[in-house]
Specification:
Blueprint: H1 4-9, H2 11-20, H3 26-66, H4 70-105, E1 126-130, H5 157-163, E2 167-168, H6 169-175, E3 182-183, H7 186-204, E4 208-210, E5 215-217, H8 218-224, E6 236-237, E7 242-244, H9 249-253, E8 259-262, E9 268-277, E10 296-306, H10 311-328, E11 333-337, E12 349-357, E13 362-371, H11 375-380, E14 382-385, E15 391-393, E16 395-403, H12 404-414, E17 416-417, E18 420-422, H13 428-431, E19 435-436
Parallel strand pairs: 4-9, 8-14
Antiparallel strand pairs: 1-11, 2-3, 5-7, 6-7, 9-10, 10-16, 11-12, 12-13, 13-16, 14-15, 17-18, 18-19
Helix pairs in contact: 3-4, 5-12
């Protein structure tokens, strides 16, 4: 969440940032935060004054008793009792103000960096790079007009999955429900090949592999910002009050909750393969067909913990890593800088990677790479100690490298040949086969 110092010292900048993110009632939300903070500080000031007065009376009582002034000592004791009752009242007022302030701060999203473009939604996202053509300054998704010619002879992945017996969507419905596919034969092998390929590439790039739980407690969901913002999108195990993770970002980043790191150990670079679970409430239509939108899917996540001075460089390196994966998979891609209105609740800046599906004649999002600045770290209490012993909040970053379903869909659809579905050369050592036929 935003820090109080940030809100107090850069009030107008924070309000403008929230408005850029299309957060309704930005000014009112910040004014309420400042009001609750004032109430908390006033209660603390009164409490401090009362405690100081109590301490003074306590010292007097001892002196009066020694001097034999019992009546005055009893009067002083009575004053102390009144002060204690008043202190309890102000202690409660302070605690209530703190609780209300923290709860309110959780409802306020992160503010975007200056380089985040203005915009209301996906159509206003800026295309900053593409494997298809040169991008012009301010090129938005809404005016993007150069895509490959759709080949009507190419089948969509759900038909290819049935033709080659790779994925059984009906069996998934039988076992669990819609959005839980069953991978079969070479479909399962392709999944495993991609997982191992992505993990090996992350290891080569210096990431330490983590194998975390796929179920987390509420504190972990709160720490990375899924709770309370996205509670309705998470699967909840009510009996134990645990949540199925929507991404490995949650457990991996929470490794560093309530931790003070040494500056010399930063940046920390972790990667993890997990199953991910998302309710996707309200999703419907052609965009959810086949692998386009699932409730359970495989994903490799890269996570970094860094210093404020180096986090933008880390973000650039993460973007290059994801782009390198798409190049090795021989997929057409484009990179979008998300506008303020399309950014997530917690991110300060985010880039999406999309691959082109020739059979569906559309772009499929396969990765989001975000810098959260200190927003998550403040919730997590993830800090580092500088060389001169100062303790500061870290910056946290994460990205998909990569999410599998739409990568599988793009490989199946884009590499159709008369011999079958050709595997990208980089994957052949992992699949053990060059074609699905």
């Amino acid at each position: 969440m935003l820090t109080l110092n940030q809100i107090k010292e850069e009030t107008e900048k924070v309000i403008q940032g929230l408005e850029k993110k299309r957060f309704n009632g930005a000014k009112e939300a910040i004014e309420k935060a400042l009001s609750l903070d004032k109430k908390r500080r006033e209660a603390q000031t009164k409490l401090d004054a009362i405690l100081a007065e109590s301490k003074k009376f306590a010292a007097q009582i001892g002196q009066l008793m020694k001097a034999g002034n019992k009546e005055e000592a009893e009067a002083a004791k009575a004053e102390v009792a009144k002060l204690k009752a008043s202190a309890a009242h102000h202690e409660t007022a302070k605690a209530e103000a703190e609780q209300a302030l923290n709860a309110h701060l959780c409802t306020i999203p992160n503010i975007p960096y200056d380089e985040v473009p203005e915009g209301n939604g996906a159509e206003d996202n800026v295309v900053v790079k593409s494997s298809l053509r040169e991008c012009k300054e301010g090129d938005t998704v809404g005016n993007w007009d150069t895509i490959p010619t759709n080949d009507e002879a190419k089948l969509p992945h759900w038909e290819l999955a049935k033709k080659y017996n790779l994925i059984d969507f009906d069996l998934g419905v039988k076992i669990t429900g819609a959005g839980f596919p069953v991978y079969v034969g070479k479909g399962a092998q392709l999944q495993r090949a991609l997982i191992n390929f992505f993990l090996d590439e992350a290891r080569k790039a210096g990431y330490t592999e983590i194998m975390p739980p796929t179920v987390v407690n509420a504190a972990s969901g709160y720490g990375t910002g899924q709770l309370p913002d996205k509670e309705g999108q998470m699967y909840h195990c009510g009996l134990d009050d645990l949540y199925l993770i929507p991404t490995a970002e949650v457990p991996v980043t929470n490794i560093y909750r309530d931790v003070i790191l040494d500056e010399k150990d930063l940046p920390i670079k972790n990667c993890a393969y997990t199953q991910c679970f998302r309710r996707e409430a309200g999703s419907y239509g052609k965009d959810v067909r086949g692998l386009n939108r699932l409730h359970e899917f495989s994903k490799i996540e890269i996570v970094r913990i860094d210093t404020p001075e180096h986090s933008k460089e880390s973000h650039r390196e993460m973007l290059e890593h994801v782009e390198g994966l798409l190049k090795k998979l021989e997929l057409h891609y484009r990179i979008l800088r998300l506008c303020g209105g399309d950014q997530s609740f917690t991110s300060a800046i985010c880039y999406d990677f999309e691959v082109y599906s020739e059979a569906q004649d559309r772009w499929l999002e396969v990765s989001s790479v975000s810098n959260f600045d200190t927003y998550q770290a403040n919730r997590l209490k993830c800090r580092y100690r500088t060389a001169d012993k100062k303790v500061q909040l870290c910056h946290t970053l994460n990205g998909s490298a990569l999410a599998l379903p739409r990568i599988v869909a793009a490989i199946l659809e884009n590499f159709q040949t008369e011999k079958g579905i050709r595997m990208p050369k980089a994957l052949v050592p992992y699949t053990g086969f060059e074609y699905i036929s």
